[in-house]
Amino acid sequence: MGRESELRRRICSRTKEDFLPEESFKSWENYVKALKQTPSRLMDRVLTRSKDEAEVEVKSRSQHEMKKTLSWWDLIWFGMGAVIGAGIFVLTGLEASQDAGPAVVLSYVVSGVSALLSVFCYTEFAVEIPVAGGSFAYLRVELGDFVAFIAAGNILLEYVIGGAAVARSWTSYFATLLNYQPDKFLIKVNTLADGYNQLDPLAVGVCIIICFIAILSTKGSSRLNYVASIIHIIVIFFIIICGLIKSDTKNYTPFTPFGARGIFKASAVLFFAYVGFDAVSTMAEETKDPGRDIPIGLVGSMVITTTLYCLLAITLCLMQPYQNIDPHAPFSVAFKNVGWSWAQYIVAAGALKGMTSVLLVSAVGQARYLTHIARTHMMPPWFSYVDGKTGTPVNATAVMTAATAIIAFFTKLDILSNLLSISTLFIFMLVALALLVRRYYVSGVTTNANRNKLIACLLVILASSAATAAYWGLSDKGWIVYCITVPIWFLATLGIWLFVPQAHDPKLWGVPLVPWLPSASIAINIFLLGSIDKDSFIRFAAWTGFLLVYYIFFGLHASYDTAKEFEKSKEWKNLEDGNGTLPTSKNAPTKSDNN
């Protein structure tokens, strides 16, 4: 009881000093003074980059260290547990029946290539900056505090929405397991808006249970993930083998009923099926040997996952015509339709195990993101607390899981999946961009001429990729613009390769074929954004607008005060620097460093 009361006290402790301890919030007078300095403070944060060492150093602000208990074997299983869930078991049916037909396998290939390119970028960063902050820490080091915060807000949105989508899918498959219709346990409330009026109390209950497991122990979560993932893999092989036994090649005709546009539209949505691998990068701080374990864990899990996805997509579309695929529980209903009703229970049980793994790894990953963001005081430092006994971020885990449960209670899966994909693609594009900056710009090493060439080429890569995506989204049959934008992208990437020398060599593990692979990742991620519906962009813009308001009034001043306070201390000296033209790098001394 003593331990439980201590945990409850820690989670429920909410004083002003927990949330706003910085100088700017000590009094109303201080706050008004800080607001008047907003333009200069914003410029400072936009042009200030952290250093690798700084991101490692801020771990001390969590009061206790996270325990280094994970190996590459743990990371592979965490990777598969994080990814293989609602995406393959729900969205495959939805996209095959509505957008891609049997060609949904090609949609998975496109999404898989994009995800694999992002995995390469994440791996290099995670090896060199082994902290819980994941892409937030990487962007803070390379693109500065402001960009990192906007990305951070979308990272947290990505995790909350992803967890909510999986939790709702969990309810659908649980109903199928009990031989009910997938929407059996949903409560319809006609007074609420459409899309938010089917309440899901079971999803809330699952989120609460997952929260307690994630708080108790990372290693314990890993062991539970092992068991769930092994059962899950067995069920996947059962689906593939038994499904192919009941296959009919006639169901693969026509192969592309919705054409190329349908394939890419499905790819943008199915990217949801690959979301989660970045959670593995947040576990770098708890990895025994990051230089060896992270590349094996991240790349290995992604290759295995992509292969399994393609095999499952092929199997589903061979079992029945794409028009007959059920959008809620496609694999369970497919076995029922081919006369193997008993198999639907095995499929439903396996899907539940897989979704449980996804929820668990998501809870672990999202809490670590929030913990590291709070260490910089962009979010209240109360979220950064790491429990001394369990070695887990208790407050962050509880709050993020509660947010996931609230969204899952109200919101339909199709709304969640589109909004999730847009946030994820945006973040992955930024990480690829940050990797190019990391490789080609080091203050004191890169000349002004080479810096300007790099900026010009990066702007052209972004503009040509955006033009390609926009034309894809607006034009149904045209192709002339692609003949202009794609060569421009190629020439800009070639320009970096030929005319800008690399200024930073990765110490332990590096992305191959730089700048081609990161540039391709930028192009593919932006292109897939062009296939997402307008309403999702409106929701994305609204959320980003909310982030900007929070940052201007709170996050900016809290992080500014924290940075300046540590700049005065010995431990922070030379760990952050700024430049008025392009944010300076962390890898080489500047003039001020030498004074």
Automatic annotation (TrEMBL):
It comes from the Eukaryota. The keyword Membrane applies. InterPro entries: AA/rel_permease1, CAT_C. It is a multi-pass membrane protein. Residues 509-559 form the Cationic amino acid transporter C-terminal domain. It is found in: Membrane. Residues 574-595 are annotated as: Disordered. The chain crosses the membrane at residues 70-91, 103-125, 146-167, 199-217, 224-246, 258-277, 298-322, 342-370, 391-410, 422-442, 454-473, 479-500, 512-532, 538-560. The keyword Plastid does not apply. Gene3D superfamilies: Amino acid/polyamine transporter I (1.20.1740.10). The gene is LOC104241837. GO terms for molecular function: L-glutamate transmembrane transporter activity; L-lysine transmembrane transporter activity. Residues 581-595 have a biased composition (Polar residues). It holds the Pfam family AA_permease_C. This is Cationic amino acid transporter 1-like isoform X2. One of its GO terms (cellular component) is plasma membrane. Belongs to the amino acid-polyamine-organocation (APC) superfamily. Cationic amino acid transporter (CAT) (TC 2.A.3.3) family. Keywords: Amino-acid transport, Membrane, Transmembrane, Transmembrane helix, Transport. Its main location: membrane.
